[in-house]
Amino acid sequence: MRKRVLSGMRPTGKLHLGNYMGALYNWVRLQHEYECYFFIADWHALTTDYSDVSKLPENTREVALDFLAAGLDPEKCVLFVQSAVKQHAELHLLFSMITPLGWLERVPSYKDQQEQLKEKDLATYGFLGYPLLQSADILIYQPDFVPVGQDQVAHVELTREVARRFNQFYPKRLTAEFNVGVLPAVDIPILPEPKVLLTPSPKLPGTDGRKMSKSYGNTVLLSDPEPIVRQKLKPMVTDPARVRRSDPGNPEVCPVFDLHKVFSSAETQAKAREGCTTAGIGCIECKSWVADAIVAELAPIQERRHHYESNPSVVKEILHAGNLRAMARAEQTMLEVRSAMGLAPA
Ligand code: ATP
Ligand code: MG
Question: Where is pLDDT greater, at 98 or 186?
Fold first, then answer.
């Protein structure tokens, strides 16, 4: 049996280089080897963007386009929309019964996001609970691996704790009926603990030096045309100590150099390092080199995007078929969960 993989992205805007290098390009590789489920987390978009939902349908379509543009193949993986699979909500509710509040209050993103997104009122029940919804999103597919960026590691850790607690309370007992009465009954976990899979660039910086994030307005999008990529990178923050063109810079503290490490060839990186540390080149030139590499990386992605953009009914059909497959798999887990928790079968 192939091992299983699950991950998702929020439709809070079009996808960016951070989503791609932190997770999506890994998903594209994994689909060839594993049974993969990838979803658009529209309920999660509501946890921060509940007061204005006007963009949600469009963003959901755009993320689907980005998934397909990046190379996810509906023949090789299941692509679906979270809100179409109501079982996620059911498992979230059941998890809420067994999860101590303190576990959610101490998730680092709870305080951090409230700090970063000050303009939004995130003192809501849904926002506190979103990592638990995420635990349900994950565990309902009983996956072995969850390929995500660095910011999600704490959430997968919580997911593992929730699984452990669930399995302690509600073990699946293999009785004599199964082991021919020779051995005592054994308990096996219904919800195995999944592991995180990180890429080499799990936290790509945005143009302001913070984590590149759809919500921070610091992104380079997978769908940005070349002039926009260059325009966005031009004012990107650099080594703050390099004030004048004649000052030598330190690539190790420069977010632009972080992008070089991910996108540029070894020669370009060496040239940029040498030019920066000797003040032989200015930051503008250095940024134009990284822009060249990014534009080249995006070209095949954008070509695939154009194909799907001109065939919207194909995209709709892909999601519809994926929703049905995801629902069938999620229901399989829920049958076990309901029975273990003493609930009537649906
Ligand atoms: P939002 O600001 O709305 O939360 P986001 O840009 O953080 O959007 P998510 O949908 O929350 O994107 O995350 C999708 C996936 O992309 C997750 O696995 C996350 O860890 C990863 N990811 C997001 N930003 C980055 C980044 N800058 N570098 C690496 N991975 C990232
Ligand atoms: Mg995020």
Answer: 98
